[in-house]
Amino acid sequence: MNLEKPKWPDGKKCAAMLTINLNAELFWLQIDPSCKDMPKTLSLGQYGMTRGVDRILSILKERGIKATFFTPGWVAEQYPDKLKKIKEEGHEIASLAYKHENMALLTEEEQEEAMKKGIEAIQNVCGVTPVGFRAPEGELTLDTLRIAKKYGMHYSSNLCDDDRPYQKDLENGETLLEIPIHWDNYDLPYFAFNYHPAFPKGQGRIANYTGVINNWKDEFYGCYEYGLCYVLQLDPAAIGAPGRIGLLEELLDYIDEFDSVWWTSGEEMYQGNTNEKRKERKMHALTNALKIINAFFANIVPIGDILWTFPQNFSWYANIPIIGSIPFAIYLLLGMGIYF
Amino acid sequence: MNLEKPKWPDGKKCAAMLTINLNAELFWLQIDPSCKDMPKTLSLGQYGMTRGVDRILSILKERGIKATFFTPGWVAEQYPDKLKKIKEEGHEIASLAYKHENMALLTEEEQEEAMKKGIEAIQNVCGVTPVGFRAPEGELTLDTLRIAKKYGMHYSSNLCDDDRPYQKDLENGETLLEIPIHWDNYDLPYFAFNYHPAFPKGQGRIANYTGVINNWKDEFYGCYEYGLCYVLQLDPAAIGAPGRIGLLEELLDYIDEFDSVWWTSGEEMYQGNTNEKRKERKMHALTNALKIINAFFANIVPIGDILWTFPQNFSWYANIPIIGSIPFAIYLLLGMGIYF
Amino acid sequence: MNLEKPKWPDGKKCAAMLTINLNAELFWLQIDPSCKDMPKTLSLGQYGMTRGVDRILSILKERGIKATFFTPGWVAEQYPDKLKKIKEEGHEIASLAYKHENMALLTEEEQEEAMKKGIEAIQNVCGVTPVGFRAPEGELTLDTLRIAKKYGMHYSSNLCDDDRPYQKDLENGETLLEIPIHWDNYDLPYFAFNYHPAFPKGQGRIANYTGVINNWKDEFYGCYEYGLCYVLQLDPAAIGAPGRIGLLEELLDYIDEFDSVWWTSGEEMYQGNTNEKRKERKMHALTNALKIINAFFANIVPIGDILWTFPQNFSWYANIPIIGSIPFAIYLLLGMGIYF
Amino acid sequence: MNLEKPKWPDGKKCAAMLTINLNAELFWLQIDPSCKDMPKTLSLGQYGMTRGVDRILSILKERGIKATFFTPGWVAEQYPDKLKKIKEEGHEIASLAYKHENMALLTEEEQEEAMKKGIEAIQNVCGVTPVGFRAPEGELTLDTLRIAKKYGMHYSSNLCDDDRPYQKDLENGETLLEIPIHWDNYDLPYFAFNYHPAFPKGQGRIANYTGVINNWKDEFYGCYEYGLCYVLQLDPAAIGAPGRIGLLEELLDYIDEFDSVWWTSGEEMYQGNTNEKRKERKMHALTNALKIINAFFANIVPIGDILWTFPQNFSWYANIPIIGSIPFAIYLLLGMGIYF
Question: What's the pTM?
């Protein structure tokens, strides 16, 4: 799938994923653990859970978009109702480790512990097993990805070296699906602010909202033109402010203007990258080709009702057509000529 | 009052509060105490008192808006004339501790001392006792809020975990009204600048004025749409510059375009959150409901002049209606059906 | 002159001053003295002298504006030709100490030394004695201002506590005319950038040019509306870039749209603040009043040619009117009634 | 060539150079060598090589622009295919040392080593010998430039003290052609971002794309108006993002609107600055003058076909005209009168 022009399901022109990082107060506690006694600083992160999440959910519901929520296990435990609500509204719950650990600074054992506890907390609170992993703001090592794989993660969404999913070589004979992200398409680095502990460290100004939405639109536009996978990262404490939630709406409105965008989640992206799904997708491409050919020949060789059906599981799943006529066999060959 | 759609007095759609922090030179002295011998750095803060305050007052007077001025006791003592003027023009004076202390770094005793001295200075200079408290730029602990309560403060305006007032649990069986604030709606983080001592520490650029006013408008717009409480924080040294005072005017013009905004102060917000006031507000909602029903039935059962009156104390206070007719009793029941 | 609405010569509505700081490579050497062996970093400041100054001079010449160039003595010695050219084109040369010293960190003796050497270098290179002083980017103490006065400086342009000139109390029974400045109206903090040594320290982004020019316009507009003194600070290394010099032109075009702006230099501002000049200005106001009254009565009591003349020294200097008629005496009394 | 209005080949009004720095992951490794085990941080730089370079190349090909790619030897060795592709598409390969060393921190011997290895790697991978040198982000000393000259570099592109090429005095009796650069015209300082290791150090916000493209346009416009040499610096990891590559296209479209821009590379610029080329250019100016004169006299003294030809080597090379008529001799004298 790591082609210059990746092929998306149903012939879509580009893919789009909305990922939400439920950093909550852990973002601040990671910067300075002494924040634990500072209600003001904690409140900056808590805001995301008390107000931000609901605003995001309501917008997603209205538009029927399924997102991927990465949560540290600890946050799931602290805010079980919010997590259950997210689950109930049909979104994917993925793992953001346990307590927002900077994985690159941990030993292998500590990393395993964080991974395990993070997954278990999600299982306990939401009753689902996450299949995707993102490392908290900090860093990760190749070990982190190997551990993620070992604990059942089917994809990682951490690296920045591409703009479409690819199989990351774990240098142990295995690979893991990587869904790359980019700082530009993340709200926190533009908006997070506090005096003590200082963030950003140099106390740079909160970004101009108009500038940020324009950057995001430019990045989506580029992804669309190049047929890539646009992955937005949001923290409810940043995007959830009354004046910023509108940026999300504006961005979704903008994306709506483009035909042929495949809205997906990490899980669906993974499913679309299993061997089985890749085969299905090839068949689907075939049936699509046949539909076109059939429409073309319809005037010449009328065949009445078309003989295949398309039960759809997620947004892009197509069964093998049930074939039952001679002309069809001709179309089939023609179709293969076009597509392969 | 901590509902998803809070109810504001007189059925207003949202609340708006203008709060001014008289940091004066203390902002710089807190960053680096050696500034005390550096007239240039001190002058950055003094500007707010010599020029900025008057500009803000003149705009507020013109528009009939009452604001809340948070002042450190020390600033009240240094600039008694400005403080008296603020008081005389009908604004609320609230406490910003004594000498802009970072409350989180003080012992409980030191915090009490700062709280007491801050309140006394306001009493001495302005002849009023403040009922609201904001901690200087730094941080606070739960102790700070408990001490504020102990020293007679009826509300705090410090935390960032909500966008409407709520009763903060002090974890000692008591609560304190919290009127939350947000960094986005504060001028200092966008505009303050100096080389030595460096602020911002990383020496980021002074923000684009147009970008800032747009952020503020977006935040107000969001507060309005969601029916929240918009709280702007201003430092006269930042907003008071000749080229920035116009941003305040532009923002107020913008807010004026919206119907149904409840301009309030911290004190009024508190008064609207006492038990007594909450009861009054319920009765008021009732009479409003009745008015609507009455207008509806007026064609069918004419009852002449309506029998209640609305003496108004602040901007939102309503007496219990004097009832005197049978049809009225019917309306009453209907009204209760609508509102409860 | 420290009134809410200061009175400017010739009844002008506001004052405007262009001040240029010839920091040259000293800006970088002050940040990190080891730059002396780093040609790339030095080249950032040298650019201002090799290219920037000429571009500024050419614009000022075209528009007939006289500016004030603050120069460290060392820069005058290093770039004597540029300094002579500045002098020859009629601009004021003022002092920026000797080698861009942070005055607040020096002993009184060291400060005197820097002051003396700075003045002497200007005398040697340009043949003029500066009468104004600005401390390099760093800081100053009250001692610095006392030393400036002692060494013949008639004004300082360092503090930020007002937006019009005022007599600064030196707390030794003396005062010194202060022409305040503001960070917002300075190009360096918006544009200076380097990796090693890092500037700004936090490596914040070079500002959006459009945002900067808009801030400057807003500040001028405010100064105009309030009748203040707009003081722009420029470093030729910042404004002198091919793409930024246009910002200066755009700003000057903008200011040109406003009637009644008094373009002045530090020296002229000082001259307008001597006791003698203040008296003259009062008389000038009087004659202006009389002109208006005369025009008004002209139809009733024609008095032929008006009897006074206005030899003008700088841009605002007016002689005492020569009075010669009875009706004039009446006008005089009426005029005094209006103006005092 | 260091004139206020430099003369460009073919009478072009200004020069424009596109230079690309292939920093790849070395940018991050220089900030913090421990990144070598952090795949996320490395991926930020790798993105430039995996995706960014191809996007740039495709745009340059479409428009027929030849750029100069500065590469550390190590990057050439790591990404030989990309480097070969760059070479094959006709761009210049120049040296960015070996492993992105901060030259100012090395001993002379270490600098020589870095220079040598950098050049050799390019020779081995691309089969060409670079003639231009840029020091990695860090700094350089005069020694660096002397070493560059010693190892066969014909030009340096490092300093910021001018906005047109000039002969830099190496203070050892030699000079080296310097093609100056400016931070404003570089994408990295606007866009690079990471949490750990932090870049920018103060974590300032990613710049507004619209603001950046406007700065670049303003700088080009100024260079055009003043007839200077516009040098853009790009890092494929910054400009190569799907939403930023459009900025390059927008800038090139903007430049296309201007007539008479000389698109050049470092190598061509150097060739235009050899003594031989300077002589040729004078002759070329002469022939141009003659053409004008000839056109003017054509009606009076028709001379049939013009007798000279212009074989062109690079974009600006002109042979000495073959002269064969009396009137021509007159024109020649007239032409010399005009041009010299």
Answer: 0.85
